[in-house]
Amino acid sequence: MPKSTIGRPDTVVVAGGAGFLGSHLCEALLMAGHRVLCVDNFLTGTKANVEAFASHRRFRLIAGDICQPFDPGEPVDRVYNLACAASPPHYQADPVHTMRTCVVGTLNLLELTERNGARFLQASTSEVYGDPEIHPQTESYTGHVNCTGPRACYDEGKRAAEAMCFDYLRAGRADIRVARIFNTYGPRMHPRDGRIVSNLIVQALTGRPLTIYGDGSQTRSFCFVSDLVEGLMRLMEVDPAPDGPVNLGNPGEFTVIDLASMVLEMTGSRSPIVFRPLPEDDPKRRRPDIGLATELLGWRPAVPLRKGLAATIHHFAREAVLEEGATVPPSARKRRRPVADDAAQTQASAMG
C-alpha cells in the first residue's frame, strides 16, 4: 500500500505554506521528518499559522510571491503548490492576481521542479466542476463552468494550471500529481474568509444572525483538514503517478441549512438564521466521487463532521473570535482533546 510519508528525509517546498491548509501540511511534513521550505506572500496566509513550529530546525519561512521566478537556493525533492486564495471574497478581491498565481505561479514552480528533478503536486479544486450537472462528480466529468463569470479567475485559473501540469507530464519534463480538493475545514481557517463553515461558526459564537445564501437546500461535502493532508501526502508518494487528477474530499453530503442547525446546536447559540440571494455561479450541489483515491491511495476520510466541527468551534472560540471581544457560550469554550490526534489514531487503524 502507498505510504503517506516519504521513505527518507527530503527537502519539500510548500507554496502557500502559511495558509490554512498549507500550514497543516507543513506541520505534518515536519512530523514525518522532512525539511520544509514554506513560501508565502501573506496575502491570505499568516505568520501566526506557522508560529508553533517556526523555530524548528528543519523549517524555513520564505516571504515571496510565486508569480515571480523562485529559487530557494538549495536542492529540493518535492514541491506542493497550494498557493492561491481559495475563498470567493479573497480570490475575487484581485482577480488578475488570482489568475496570475494560478498560471504564472504554477509555471514558475514547474520550472523549479524540472530544474531539480523533483516531484510536483498541484492543489486544484472542485471549482473546476463549476455548478455540476452530474452527482457525485468523478474525475472524468469535464464540468459546467461559466468561463467569464465572477468566479472565473479561480475556476479557469485552476483549469489552466491543470492543463499545464499534464503538458509537463506528457512531455516527460516533471513527475506530476494533481489533487482536486473539495470543501475543507478545520482550525486555522481565517475567521473572515467567507467560507460557509467559518462564516456560520463565527456568526454563532458572536451572537450575530447566521447568513445563508439561497434557501439552504444547496449541498456541500466537508472534509476535515487532517484527512485532506493525509490524502495529499499519499498522492505525492504513490507510484506510478496517476495519469489524471484525483478527487480528495469527504463524500458525506449535507445541506447548508443542516450545517447551520448543527453549528447552532454545538455552540449553544440562539442566533437567528437569515437568508440572502444566492451569488452568481454558486453551485447547487457538490459531492466528490473518491473511488479513485480509495483505489490508488488506500485513502478515505476518517473524521466525522460533528467531530471536526467541535475542533473548529473550539479553535475559533479560543483564538479568533475572542479577539473581537465577543461573549462566547461556555459550551464552546470547553477544552476538548484535539481532533487531529484522534483522527491520526483512527486513520492508522482504518488504513493500516
From TrEMBL:
GO MF term (any one): NAD+ binding
Cellular localisation: Golgi apparatus membrane; Golgi apparatus, Golgi stack membrane
Protein known as: UDP-glucuronate decarboxylase
Protein's membrane topology: Single-pass type II membrane protein
Pfam families for the chain: Epimerase
Originating organism: Pseudoxanthobacter soli DSM 19599
Domain NAD-dependent epimerase/dehydratase intervals: 12-248
Disordered: annotated segments: 327-352
Cofactor(s) named in the record: NAD(+)
Keyword Transmembrane helix: yes
Organism taxonomic ancestry: Bacteria, Pseudomonadati, Pseudomonadota, Alphaproteobacteria, Hyphomicrobiales
Chief location bin: Golgi
GO cellular component, one term: cytoplasm
GO BP annotations listed: D-xylose metabolic process; UDP-D-xylose biosynthetic process
